[in-house]
Predict the structure of Ferrous-iron efflux pump FieF.
Amino acid sequence: MPKVAERAAVLSVVVTALLAVAELSVGVYSGALSVIANGVQSAIDLLAAVTAWVAVRQAAKPPDAEHRYGHGKVESLLAAVQALLIWLTCGLIAYEAIKKWQGGGAVTHPPAAIAVMALSATVGWLTARYLFAVAHRTQSLALQADAWHLQADAGAALSVLVGLTVLALTGWQFLDALLALGVAAVIAKSGFELLQQATHHLLDTALPPDEEAAIQSVLRAHAERFINAHRLRTRRAGNRRYVDLHLVVPDAMTVAEAHQLCDAIEGAIRRILPGTDVTIHVEPESAFLRQGEEDRVSPIIHSGGQ
């Protein structure tokens, strides 16, 4: 599966590079700042695509002596850097758009600008659909971020296409600056969403409620074999999930029986949530009863699945 993700990342690099060159070239030729802005956004996505390719390769590396939990957070770290670069570019585009609004040059070749925007919207949307599909299969945050970039670009390109068509029909030159500001707003929004998601992963935010509910459903299915489960902690790093919890078992249960129970729970969780690293701390009932009040009154699963 990592090979599939890597091929998708390479395809994104090629497509985004071609779109960036086409948009920037035609934007300069036609004098359309909105097309140049979209080209700059594509150039940002090219950086994002290259970053995604690097992140996919790095995150796929196995754990080593210095990174015992693997390299999954490389994706989140690079996504945060991308978001900061996106905001910087957004500010530059907005600055140029305001200058043009106050009395810049006119769009001299609207048909060329319209044609390249139609191409960008179509190719960008199709590529984004493919990347979303691969990201879902591989659970890759980097590819998902790349797909969101391309989808946002396609939407922006469609808006610019409509606006430039109106400009060509009416001669309203102010539309070009207005469209460029719109593209800048789209860029800013995508940067915020990307930074928010990356920050959640870097700060070890818990897994989504539906995924934690799936973990608890596994525990309920095995609840007749233990007394309770508590201290459930979850997080995600790249395309891997990490789960740890405490499991209280009867004093009479042997080590072999406890090991077999943990293996069954871990295997069931991995079947529901592929790519999950599960750690279970087993406690005998007598030791559990001597612990603090917090553990004894706040179990996540009681014996019998209650």
